[in-house]
Design a protein that fits this description.
Layout: H1 3-61, H2 71-104, H3 108-138, H4 145-148, E1 160-167, E2 170-177, E3 187-192, H5 206-214, E4 218-222, H6 236-255, E5 258-267, H7 269-282, E6 301-305, H8 311-317, H9 327-335, H10 343-348, E7 361-367, H11 375-387, E8 392-397, H12 411-425
Parallel strand pairs: 3-4, 3-5, 5-6, 6-7, 7-8
Antiparallel strand pairs: 1-2, 2-4
Length: 431
């Protein structure tokens, strides 16, 4: 190459470098800013993943301690029967948020923390959900996980709202729900609400009764006398629901429903009243607030959700989730004193007092983690009934606490409804 050619080439290269430098500097700065923003986005995603994963892990770990230990363990115990599938989805989302950090190989410490929490969350949430579904399947029930994500209660207006009794000037309400196919030949169910014998109404428990009408039962949801510090109802409330059962039997007959397939059901304190009513009626010992209305019919079956079937055990060992709502207080209200001071009343309202060969088939759905109305007390009552030859069944629901079935479409609600339906079908008491 000639000297002139070499100089020309050098000039061209110099011009190119100057031109390239002046043109790419802003672009480099823009690329740098974009890189900074990307790093912040990836970091933020990993932080969110850590929070979501940590929340699920906390809810899973809360089941290692008694439910009433603190607000965290109580929340953890209540969460799974209502939100187990949602927590699986939450864990999957958290896992997806971790992916960018692995792709770009940034933030190794944060990446490891987030990924570890997410992995534990995903494994624990899937495992707990699987245990709940398996509990349903093993006991004749089923769970639609897609449906459980909706967590809704589908309202069904009462066919009729009336009263079955007026006591002390107060009408006791009866809310009637006919199934979609009409009352004709439908099996009959009377529902008794809970609330510690001192709170709650038929109206407030409407969703609990509605589910059975949706399943094909002719349902009557009833009120009864409630206790307070000055007004014990250990004798009034049982007599009221006995009257309500006579009224239900008469009204269902008029409507064309099949009273030959009669079930009494209730939850919590209502579960206690359902068991007491069914077992005492079978023994011919059910006193009624309206004796002139007729004899108290003997139900073919009793279904009780987390009932107070063992009042002394509940009083001695029941744990209060809130200071203002504790088993010791509402038991005193109901009995009108300490159990040891009113032992005659305790005996009068204990289902086991009326245990006999005629005791109707009884199903108890018991959340394993319930320490509000302790599970062991109900287990002991059903075991004693079984030893006496009664068709008595107790189904334990894992990772569940009191009121686990509050929402119809939740995994807990589906477990309660599907198992109960199958159990009643096996006894020819279902639609």
């Amino acid at each position: 190459m000639t000297r002139e050619g070499a100089l020309a080439t050098k000039g061209i290269m110099s011009t190119y470098k100057q031109s390239a430098g002046s043109l790419t500097t802003p672009e480099r700065r823009t690329a740098g800013h974009r890189g900074d923003r990307s790093r912040w986005v990836w970091t933020f995603a990993a932080v969110v993943a850590s929070i979501l994963g940590g929340l699920v892990v906390l809810l899973a770990a809360g089941n290692l301690l008694p439910a009433a230990t603190n607000i965290v363990t109580l929340g953890a115990t209540m969460a799974w029967a209502s939100f187990a599938p949602h927590l699986v989805v939450l864990s999957v989302i958290a896992g997806l948020l971790c992916i960018p950090l692995w792709v770009v190989k940034r933030r190794p410490i944060l990446r490891s923390i987030a990924s570890g929490l997410v992995a534990i969350a995903l494994v624990s949430s899937v495992a707990i959900t699987a245990v709940l579904v398996n509990a349903a399947t093993e006991n004749g029930g089923s769970v639609d996980l897609a449906r459980s994500l909706s967590i809704t209660n589908s309202p069904k207006a009462p066919t009729e709202i009336t009263s079955y009794l007026t006591a002390d000037g107060t009408p006791h309400e009866a809310r009637i729900y006919e199934p979609d196919g009409g009352a004709e030949d439908a099996p009959v169910m009377m529902y008794i609400h809970g609330g510690g014998w001192y709170m709650g109404t038929a109206e407030e428990s409407e969703s609990m009764a509605q589910r059975w009408a949706k399943e094909g039962w002719y349902v009557v949801n009833v009120d009864y006398s409630l206790a307070d510090a000055e007004n014990a109802t250990w004798d009034k409330a049982p007599a009221d629901v006995a009257c309500a059962l006579t009224w239900t039997d008469n009204r269902a007959t008029e409507a064309g429903a099949d009273t030959g397939r009669l079930t009494v059901t209730g939850d919590s304190a209502g579960g206690h009243l359902a068991m007491l009513l069914g077992w005492s009626a079978a023994a011919g010992a059910a006193a009624s607030s309206c004796p002139d209305a007729g004899d108290v019919p003997v139900p073919d079956a009793v279904v009780a959700g987390y009932p107070v079937s063992n009042i002394v055990d509940t009083y001695d060992r029941g744990a209060a989730p809130l200071p203002s709502f504790n088993p010791q207080e509402f038991t005193r209200f109901f009995l009108g004193g300490e159990p040891e001071d009113v032992s005659d009343r305790v005996r009068a309202v204990s289902p086991l007092t009326y245990l006999s060969d005629e005791t109707p088939a009884t199903l108890v759905l018991q959340p394993e983690r319930d320490d509000f109305i302790p599970a062991q007390g109900n287990v002991e009552v059903i075991e004693e009934a079984q030893q006496a030859g009664v068709d008595a069944t107790i189904v334990s629901v894992p990772f569940a606490w009191h009121g686990f079935d509050a929402t119809l479409d939740s995994i807990g609600g589906q477990i309660k409804t599907s198992i109960t339906r199958t159990w009643l079908e096996e006894r020819n008491l279902a639609p």
